[in-house]
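Dissemination and training. As part of the outreach component of the grant, students in the summer workshop were shown how a complex can be specified as a set of sequence lines and then modelled as a single object. The example used during the hands-on session is reproduced here so that future cohorts can follow it. Participants entered these lines:
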Amino acid sequence: MASLKRSVLAPGRFPRMPEIPGVSLQAARAGIKYAGRDDLLLVTLDRGTTVAGVFTRSATASAPVQWSRKVAASGKAGAILVNSGNANTFTGSQGVADVRSTAAMAGRVVGCRRSDVLIASTGVIGEPLPVDRIQRALAGIQPGRRPASWNRAARAIGTTDTYPKGAVRRTRIGDTDVCLCGIAKGSGMIAPDMATMLAFVFTDARLPGPVLRTLLKEGIRTSFNCITVDSDTSTSDTALLAATGRAANPAPKSATAPELKAFRSALKELLTDLAIQVVRDGEGASKFMTVDVTGAASSSEARTAALAIANSPLVKTAIAGEDANWGRIIMAVGKSGARLLQKHLAISIGGVTITRAGERVESYDESEVTEHLKGTDISIAVDLGVGRSKSRVWTCDLTHDYIRINADYRT
Amino acid sequence: MASLKRSVLAPGRFPRMPEIPGVSLQAARAGIKYAGRDDLLLVTLDRGTTVAGVFTRSATASAPVQWSRKVAASGKAGAILVNSGNANTFTGSQGVADVRSTAAMAGRVVGCRRSDVLIASTGVIGEPLPVDRIQRALAGIQPGRRPASWNRAARAIGTTDTYPKGAVRRTRIGDTDVCLCGIAKGSGMIAPDMATMLAFVFTDARLPGPVLRTLLKEGIRTSFNCITVDSDTSTSDTALLAATGRAANPAPKSATAPELKAFRSALKELLTDLAIQVVRDGEGASKFMTVDVTGAASSSEARTAALAIANSPLVKTAIAGEDANWGRIIMAVGKSGARLLQKHLAISIGGVTITRAGERVESYDESEVTEHLKGTDISIAVDLGVGRSKSRVWTCDLTHDYIRINADYRT
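and obtained this result:
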């Protein structure tokens, strides 16, 4: 990660995460953009590992995304190669060739086919990938020797992140204990559309490819697809779920098999945990915001309204200024396109009801809301008054530091 | 207007604007929110004046918008009452009653029916309108006595505006000379959806209501609907066009009548002039940006892509930082949902071609773009490479001053 000041919203400490049998992590310094830090991660996966992936829907998706989409579709993989500092995006036919050759190099190191290597790159857009540096770094890696910790792996994939992001959940499939470990990166350009910047989740469970795919898609829907930092969607968004099968549980037939119930909720929890860590590291963030929309005509309209609030520069700056300017929430839901009834519209901040039945409540005491806004974890709840659907979205405020970080990122 | 520092992008000076026969302007200090300045404008319109209006599509539109929509639909009006400092939005049944009573007061002053008075209010959302103050201010106005200049009128309707906005065009309908004068306000919460914050255009031409409606709608499409400051749409957006008929030209039968050709383009010019003035006063703006998208599959996709660039916080902060970070333009068009072909995508900034055929051009010299970015008027052009449709959008950059203005607007 870059040497930025640790976010004030950072969680206490990196969790203790066990090894996942069948997964080996190795980090290296390739010097792609950042000096004096790891910027390359090679994950070796046991033979027989199944994978699923969810990727950005951007029409300018990177060369690695286009490559990995195909690998993930096959349902199996032998390795994941991740670099930070260069996104290999909009690099034309050279970028495509560079993905192919780095996949081949990684395949040689771990002993798998090029077509079984997943690739993920984030960083500057439009610059050619320095393949020679990656090659040199890979040449220094010996599989199985000096494996990296999850913490080190999470640091290696970061760009403008100010802390490493990891999460662990232990659960059971039938009578078999299984474990899930995940790492993620992301801080700016965060408004995932089917995935986040990067998230990699590993489990020793045995899960067929199609089952894995359904589980990941379902888990992303209420986690990474419900966060936003700045409404800008990355060209590199990639979320991968890999299952080594070393726990040797009987393979479930479908994603809805009853023995998968606990696993499904553990996966959702873990993905949500990682997604929230990304938001808490939002560029320049000083407040973490949870936006709940209820009473919507459909869950997609609930999400639209929640994202309109979460992405509104005027709402985000009001929260940064600890200003109980709830009129901007009225504005945001109004412009969102979600159906609502003004006369039923209810808004509360920090649990304090501000409006009900289309008007400010008479007893409303702004000082209670102002007190809540002085904290770092802000909750906004809106009922649209037209239906029963709901959605929860997480975001952060918009501060001077966001401008500072992004007005001189490359210079 | 508030006493904010004049925008560095402000035009040279307020234009010389003649009186429009049949239109009388009067400004007053009601003390609604701002002290020591005009905050009320009363426009008296000659009997027989036709009007058309275009309003925000926000689902939380203000009480005045809901009222004026009905008045404008009738095609005629006797007065326009505008106040700044209070938006009378989300004020429930009291807000509706307050519009009705202030319309009645204005009607008594100018001698027309309550139902012929258009109302427009901008300012804080959710606070009750101080009707008594408006009443006192109106009581001091005598129609025809001490009319206000266009400059004074434009100042009276401003909120966070840093300069008054006016425009004038002289043209002919058939053999008759006619004149158009317009004023506007707006600075933040600018992403109009069918209108801007506030714009009032007056002409002495004789134009039937239905013709006026078509002309206004057509003019708004390529002016106020093509600007954005911060992607936030106001609850008060109102654009009105009033024609007193005093020029006594033969009334045209339809908006497409050949004798209206010059008038139509004069109106478009005037509306675009005002819209650009609003953007140049964008909160905290230090750069004015023109975004041209060509080669789109449809004009609506061209506009979608252009707005995605214009609203991207990462693009806007890069421009503020004078950073030739064109990768963020790639990101923005990618996320927009507009169809494009990466291998045909072409981007230029300040006339310098950066990418062609899906790659950075070999001869690209960043220093030329950096030189352009040091200026205040920035042009971005993108060809999506899939069709023949195009769109132009105007916006401004995102700076520390936007955060400063909006993190402590109410306090």
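Chain A has eleven helices and 15 strands. Students were then asked to discuss how this feature might be tested experimentally.
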